[in-house]
């Protein structure tokens, strides 16, 4: 396990006209582990990830992935794989067609599409129009797209949304395997139960940072439920919290 | 950059949009072809020139440029509708590269629309008079008009794409292009023809060699179009690089 963080956020702040979505967020994400970015709907998870990836400019602060801002990281698209709820597939594409578009953009071999189709359990659905896919299949396709370039870092926004119990188990196993191969996985979620069995580290946000550390520390090695700790953290007045 | 253009080409041919636009454009151009052919038949019977009729029919195919511009706009704005643009930006390396690749692919799409219009236009000139027993009278002017029709489609597509980057919404971009082309520019032309000749679509009518008065000479018309495209490029680039993506 490396000691240099894979992802580093420093004083990250985003103000939209009258709302502060993310406020002075400082946290390091350790490499080679699965980290859950947890918070309620509207807590600022997606906004944080958008700033990390340079899709949105921070009002203050900065973010780096693998030591550089995403926009300045050489071969960033090959080293960082992204799947976000808000990033939809190309209109009118099929499962394979969608993957082929991004395979072309990345300059990869066409055969890589078959590999990620296999990895994400989409075999047999290759020629299906994406518009006719279930939410679960769309989530698998988004993950397949993120995995195309075999990236070191994965940034996944709400990948468990819309998954059935089989899908959730599959996602958990897949993320664990990816981390076991040495990859860094940052996964946002508001579904605590699913996260509890998947992540090594936890970052809890509610506009501001509420907790950053290992899941084991947060739950006292499983003595407390994650849910119980979560509500304590997000409902507490900000000052009362110490940043772990 | 080659990879990026390749990926953008794949996106451009994904879905049915471009077929629908080509069919719609062809349908409209055919409608006015039939109009010009039947009007032309009467005119020739009254002693008019057959060459003028052929040229009018060739000019009828200029309308394809509107559909070329819509295809450019949709190429960009549909990505905003689905959020796909975020992935495009992430994989492009920089927003400037994405803008360049997309503009190049839109221009290629415009060339496809242009070839379709010029090709079908030539066929229309040759055969539209047949039901009336009129034969075509191709002149050098006819070929220049068809070349102009091609050029207008090629140039209109990047124009649509750049407006798409500025407006970022499919319905608004399509409405804006249609309004500019069918309402605003002809309106200004009726009220202030001197000023209107510099407008993009009126400058294009110089390029497809319309016979209206108060049109710029062709080289100046190309310069005016280049001016509009350059302005749109800088506006699109500035907005794309400074605004948050979706
Ligand atoms: N583009 C935007 N303009 C204005 N407000 C926004 C925008 N994006 C997000 N917000 C607001 O910022 C807050 C955080 O949103 P978000 O990051 O999407 O939360 P989460 O992903 O944790 O559910 C919400 O209150 C949301 O309404
Ligand atoms: Mg979100």
From TrEMBL, chain A:
GO terms for molecular function: ATP binding; ATP hydrolysis activity. The keyword Nucleus does not apply. Residues 7-231 form the ABC transporter domain. InterPro entries: AAA+_ATPase, ABC_transporter-like_ATP-bd, P-loop_NTPase. The keyword Nucleotide-binding applies. Coiled coil: none annotated. It comes from the Bacteria. PROSITE patterns: ABC_TRANSPORTER_2 (PS50893). Keywords: ATP-binding, Nucleotide-binding, Transport. Belongs to the ABC transporter superfamily. This is ABC transporter. It comes from Streptomyces pilosus.
From TrEMBL, chain B:
Keywords: Membrane, Transmembrane, Transmembrane helix. The chain crosses the membrane at residues 18-37, 57-77, 98-130, 142-166, 173-192, 218-236. It comes from the Bacteria. This is ABC transporter permease.
